[in-house]
Write a structure and sequence with these properties.
The structure holds two protein chains of two kinds. By secondary structure, chain A is of the alpha/beta class. Chain A has helices at 34-53, 74-84, 103-116, 132-136, 143-159, 198-207, 217-234, 257-267, 269-272, 278-281, 289-297, 312-317, 326-339, 357-376; strands at residues 2-7, 57-60, 90-96, 121-126, 165-168, 173-177, 191-194, 210-214, 245-253, 321-324, 345-351. In chain A, helix 3 (103-116) crosses helix 5. Chain B is built from ten helices and eight strands. An eight-stranded mixed beta sheet of chain B has the order 1-2-4-3-5-6-7-8, sandwiched between helices. The radius of gyration of chain B is 17 Å and the shape is globular. Classes of the chains: A alpha/beta, B alpha/beta.
Chain lengths: 384, 263
């Protein structure tokens, strides 16, 4: 198994949540102090560099108009990391390509970072969270159609080397696509796609990229991975290796269980602080109509109900948080691994909210030294 | 005179269309707004006293199937021009409300060959102010109860208690919202070119507005719309908001009837 240190680069220094209606979309940026923000940016980059020293790989993402994540341009920080690091794989998960107006520009940015890093880039594509429809003015209906057209265009841009090609699709128009530079890795960097539902997992399975789930817990993740595997079997495609399956959880490893839980409670800020009103969690067309109808009735059911009133015990029970001493964290991950039919990539959300630098680094160190070596044995091929 | 609502399905150039019809006589095409078709609403049967009311469901609304190739108001305008051709209608009136008013206006700038009256009820579709003026409040960024407050003279008429609705009713609301976003997300509820084309509307045109419409006001949006259409009149109905046919159905149908009867 391969492990990636992931930080949302949150800006947690906010007033009491009673003072604002939403932490995303309309929260005025007067609450953001750029001087404190600069310190945070540099701290988070330092933590990624420490991750590399510890033998972990590096993951970052991109969100817009939110205090939960201050990377509205993921490729920029990835460009910095491509220069500052030497050995770690670099995963951006991901580029919200249903929301980027210019997929060719995404292809260029990713090719550029891949060359900078001498071929260490892994490129994730995501649909984008519902809150970002307003932030980017992107139409939430028929998004996946737009997503897959952007995906096809980017892959063609990466793999065409004999001069311009033409693209007059439903959503994107170019008559002279011919990117410089082309990617360092051939034919192109590894591709990851996030899927939270079986329907989208099927489409990812057809294409055989890495599929990643975020905080979907035991059963949600199993449904996604099963759908991916089943779809490949239906199509007669070769079975996917474990490195095709990724899971992101909140992870804190302490010397004792108590220390692990204390760290994890601080990570829970990310879900506790995610105060967002209905109109931004449920833009029209983002969720299928039956799911929308359910959301209109009130607090969601199943695993998502936990997000209404997040509790560490419940998040741990359902596999959204792995926390405790190294043995406990290892056992929790193994239990999850067995439940979902195996997975080869773990995305460690190891920094959020009020977890300070020392605490963040300590959790990473204990994981890297005490837990990771045992996980690597699970799937040696993916943890080369 | 037929007193029952007839439902039918038509396939027009590959697009399946659900249609409710009521009444006989002069054809009146009714284009519904973001709230979907409401064939059971009082105004619909009152209107059926004035003629043959034809109420299609825009693809994707209510229970109507959506169609891959239909995703703009322009597509809907051509679809309903095709419907007029299919029915071989003459001297038809078109009534459109809000989103439906936008569709009706787009039809009228393309062709009025089969039309003799245009009635735009709190129509959307034009850009009035400058780039930093949000002419039309962003329904997708407002709490649902705030949208109701802006759109109704009496907000209790429009308030929906989602917890008291059936799954089927909620599904219809969810589909209506999704279809509205499909057609009106960007540019938001307007076609930047429509206003400059409205001079082409060469048939008598009546705009109807609720005096209490705080969503798009008669004084700002209504007069701008009226001024863009040669000879158009603007009628304002008291104690009504953005949906005057819902809040004041009798007065509404009276105004429509008088306009249809005028020469």
């Amino acid at each position: 198994m391969r492990a990636w240190h992931f930080s949302e680069n949150a800006y947690h220094l906010l007033p009491d949540a009673k003072e604002y209606d939403s932490i995303r979309v309309p929260l005025p940026n007067r609450y953001y102090d750029p001087k404190l923000g600069a310190d945070l940016y540099h701290r988070f980059i330092d933590e990624w560099l420490i991750a590399e020293e510890l033998g972990l790989d590096i993951m970052l993402n991109e969100h817009h108009q939110t205090a939960t994540n201050l990377n509205p341009a993921g490729p920029i920080v990835m460009g910095i990391l491509a220069r500052e690091t030497k050995t770690a794989r670099l995963l951006i998960l991901g580029n919200p390509i249903a929301n980027r107006r210019e997929p060719v520009r995404v292809a260029e940015e990713m090719a550029m970072v891949d060359v900078y890093s001498r071929g260490r880039l892994e490129v994730g594509f995501v649909r984008g969270v519902p809150y970002e429809m307003s932030a980017g003015n992107h139409r939430p209906t028929r998004m996946m159609e737009r997503f897959w057209e952007a995906y096809d265009l980017i892959l063609k841009a990466w793999t065409s080397h004999d001069g311009p090609f033409n693209w007059e699709g439903k959503y994107f128009h170019h008559r002279q696509v011919n990117i410089w530079p082309r990617p360092y890795q051939q034919p192109h960097p590894p591709v990851w796609i996030t899927a939270l539902s079986p329907g989208s997992a099927q489409a990812v399975g057809e294409r055989g990229t890495v599929v990643a789930c975020f905080l979907t817990g035991f059963d949600g993740s199993k449904r996604v991975f099963d759908a991916y595997r089943t779809r490949r079997a239906e199509l007669g495609l070769p079975p996917a290796g474990l490195d095709r399956f990724a899971y992101a959880a909140l992870v804190y490893t302490g010397e004792t269980d108590e220390e692990g839980y204390a760290g994890a409670r601080k990570l829970m800020w990310y879900v506790e602080a995610n105060k967002v009103p209905f109109q931004f969690t449920s833009p029209p067309g983002y969720h299928p109509p039956p799911a929308m109808a359910g959301a209109m009735k009130g607090p969601a059911s199943g695993v998502f109900k936990m997000f209404q009133n997040p509790k560490l015990e419940s998040f741990m029970e359902h596999g959204l948080v792995f926390a405790g001493n190294p043995d406990s964290v290892y056992r929790q991950i193994i239990k999850f691994y067995e439940h979902v039919g195996g997975f080869g990539q773990i995305l460690l959300m190891g920094q959020a909210g009020f977890l300070d630098h020392q605490e963040t680094v300590k959790g990473m160190q204990l994981f890297a030294r005490e837990v990771y070596p045992r996980l690597k044995e699970l799937h040696p091929a993916a943890a080369a | 005179m037929s007193r029952t609502i007839q439902s039918r399905q038509l396939t027009l150039h590959g697009v399946q269309l659900d249609i409710s019809e009521h009444g006989q006589g002069r054809p009146i095409l009714v284009l519904h707004g973001e709230d979907g078709p409401c064939p059971q609403a009082p105004f619909f049967s009152l209107l059926a006293n004035q003629g043959r009311v034809i109420l299609p469901t825009h693809p994707g609304f209510g229970q109507a199937p959506d169609t891959a190739d239909i995703d703009t108001v322009d597509d809907l305008a051509y679809l309903y021009l095709d419907l007029l051709d299919e029915y071989e209608l003459r001297d038809a009136a078109v009534i459109g409300c809000s989103l439906g008013g936008w569709i009706a206006a787009e039809m009228a700038v393309k062709s009025t060959a089969r039309l003799s009256r245009l009635i735009l009820v709190t129509p959307l579709g034009i850009k009035v102010g400058d780039r930093e003026t949000r002419d039309i409040p962003d329904i997708f960024a407002l709490p649902p109860e705030e949208v109701v407050r802006l759109q109704y003279h009496d907000p209790t008429q429009g308030a929906a208690d989602y917890t008291s609705l059936s799954d089927d009713e909620l599904l219809v609301i969810a589909r209506n919202r999704e279809a509205t976003a499909l057609y009106a997300w960007e540019p938001y509820f307007h076609n930047p070119k429509l206003r400059q084309r409205l001079h082409r509307v060469a048939i008598p045109t009546l705009l109807i507005w609720g005096a209490s419409d705080r969503f798009v006001t008669p004084g700002y949006y209504g007069t701008a719309y009226r001024d863009a259409i040669p000879g158009a009149q603007l009628a304002v109905i008291d104690r009504a908001g953005h949906w005057p046919h819902v809040e004041q159905p009798e007065v509404f149908v009276e105004r429509v009837g008088a306009f249809l009867a005028s020469t």
